[in-house]
Structures are given as structure tokens and as C-alpha cells.
Amino acid sequence: MALDKPYADVPGTTIFDADMARRGYHLNQFCMSLMQAANRERFKADQRGYLDAWPMTEEQKMAVLARDYNGMIALGGNIYFLAKIFSTDGQSFEQAAASMTGLTREAYRSMMLGGGRSPKGNRYKGEKTDG
After folding, report:
1. Cβ contacts of residue 74 below 8 Å, gap of 6+?
2. What domains appear along the chain, each with residue ranges and CATH number?
3. What CA–CA distance (Å, rounded) separates 108 from 97?
4. The predicted structure's pLDDT at residue 122
5. What CA–CA distance (Å, rounded) separates 110 from 61?
6. How far apart are CA 40 and CA 11, in angstroms?
7. From its phi and psi, is residue 14 left (phi > 0), alpha (psi between -120 and 50) or beta?
């Protein structure tokens, strides 16, 4: 029996809950393997070969190869685990977050220093508002 998830209809938001943790288990374990220097080197030398050693879905592997962080999150990736990938690539959290928003690093930094994104439109679809 599926649990009621009232948080599931927040536009643009993927909640990392128990279902997502199960879905992304092997993806996240792959990410954690990158904490070891030898594994990072193996991954950089043959990304597809390294990924094929993990029982991830093909969709998850393709998202990793494309560095599609939003796609990885939708497939069960946790941003704190995914950080191991962009760190392996020599990217900062800020660079990765900017790529996830479609902004340049400078535009992303400016937005965040300016108070972040507007909450307008980021409500439950079923939520009633006065404006």
C-alpha cells in the first residue's frame, strides 16, 4: 500500500524519502566509492567500465555519464552523495548547483547572494493561496 505523500506535488522539488533512497541505493553507493583516490582514478580512466561494475539502471548510468545531476536526483540520487562526482570532476558545489539551475556560475552566485529564488510558484499544487 502506497503512503500518502502530500509533499509530492511541490513544483520543481524532488524529496529524498525512503522510496527514493531505495531507488537510488546503488547510484549513491557508486558515488560513495569515489571517496577513495584509487576508485576516482579508475572511474576517470574508464567511466563506463567503472559504472558497469555497479548494479545501477542504464538510465542512472547514462545520467552519470552526461553529468545530469537533476536526472540523477530524479533517479534516486542524493545531492550529498552526488557531490562526490562533481568533486571528482574538480567542480565546486556552487558550479554543480549553477549547472542544475541552468544559470552561469556568476548568475547563480548573484541570485544566491541576493536572497535566492522567489518562493512564488513553489507551493503545493493543491494549496490555496490568496494571490
Report:
1. 14
2. 15-90 (1.10.700.10)
3. 8
4. 57
5. 32
6. 35
7. beta
Q: Is 87 helix (H, G, I), strand (E, B) or coil?
A: helix
Three cell numbers written together for 33:
566509492
Please name which of 69, 62, 68, 60 lies closest in space to residue 24, comparing C-alpha atoms: 60
Task: Give the CA distances from residue 43 to residues 5, 92, 110, 112, 125, in Å, rounded to whole numbers and listed in that order.
Answer: 37, 19, 33, 32, 41
Residues in the chain: 131
Is the pTM value of this prediction over 0.90? no
User: What is the predicted pLDDT for the residue at 120?
Assistant: 65
- Cα distance between residue 112 and residue 101, in whole Å: 12
Q: 47-73 pLDDT, tens per residue?
A: 999 999 999 999 999 999 999 999 999
Contact 40, 32 (CB under 8 A): no
Looking at residue 9, the DSSP 8-state letter turns out to be G
Residue 81: name the closest of 66, 98, 64, 65 by CA. 64
